[in-house]
Amino acid sequence: xxxxxxxxxxxxGVDVSPVMVSLATRRVAAWVERARIALxxxxxxLPADDGCADRVLSTFVFDxxxxxxxxxxxxxxxxxxxxxxxxxxxxxxxxxxxxxxAISRTWMRLSRVAxxxxxxxxxxx
Length: 125
What we know:
The protein contains 3 helices and 4 strands, in the order E-H-E-E-H-E-H. By secondary structure, it is an alpha/beta fold. Strands 1-2 form a two-stranded parallel ribbon.
């Protein structure tokens, strides 16, 4: 992971789940001087300085947030990003093609039957 990147690259991961923080901390243990994982409680601001990030990646977070709070989180992510920084958000959503609809429906059914398997992530309408 970090070994293939320039030595100036640092990593900060945040999560509200102690289990995920523990797993991530173990995965980046070899790069303890360049990588840090922080447990957050969902409140803002996030533990990062203004303009400090060249890249911000958010995976399956916005599926769990109501619209107003999601907008507030986006504002904080903008605060963190450097002027030419990039924001990447991966999220589930309903689609129009048959295969995409089938995947979303299957995911929704699974979320009702076994929500822990999906960690509460459901497609946004």
